[in-house]
């Protein structure tokens, strides 16, 4: 992954079409590397999460091209590369597994980020009805080795339709049910990248199963 980190670092300094086109061959080599790891992780995840199908890695990889139509920031390219491995790939609507490569900001994670109102309500309903299972998952020492805090913003009060005096109301205030684990560039470029990522994904499996169970009747 060292080549990917280096390319993205240079892209951050030269975020324009001329430089990108001059370095397109390097970009394509980096893209192929990320696709290779996406396929590898897909195969490893399927060993413990039987709900994940064999997916074309291209369906999981996010485009490097930015949508600048409604943005004041007109830089044409993202300075990161990442894939979301789930049913439906990056367009999937359920919980899944994500890895993100960015100089000094790489991470692995998963869950469900910023779901639409209906699935968000379904997840909150499941938590309201069965909070202990979620608490057992996120408080497990092996899970907390990687993931310690939800990755999102929270409501300041109870969500509509749920009692404010619910014992675990803090769990219902999240707008996402996702976690992330930061990785140093040295780890991403080193021999432990695959094992660390797969181990972290394995800890996310129970969380994803919990979330996707809540979504079974609406997806």
Any overview of this molecule?
The chain has 219 residues and is an alpha+beta fold. Helices cover 44% and strands 11% of the residues. A four-stranded antiparallel beta sheet has the order 1-2-3-4. α3 (24-45) crosses α9 (193-215) and α4 packs across α5. It is globular and about 60 Å long. 31% of the residues are buried.
As a whole number of angstroms, the C-alpha radius of gyration is 18 Å
Q: How large is the share of residues in beta strands?
A: 5-15%
**Could you list the spans in which at least 5 consecutive residues all have pLDDT below 50?**
none
Average pLDDT rating? 95
Q: In which order are the strands of the major sheet placed?
A: 1-2-3-4
Oligomer: single chain
Q: Kindly name the structural category.
A: alpha+beta
Figure out the total of helices.
9
Q: Between the first and last Cα atoms, what is the distance in angstroms? A: 35 Å
Helix content: 40-55%
Order of helices and strands: HHHEEEHHHHEHH
Major sheet: size, sense and barrel closure?
4 strands, antiparallel
Compute the number of strand runs.
Answer: 4
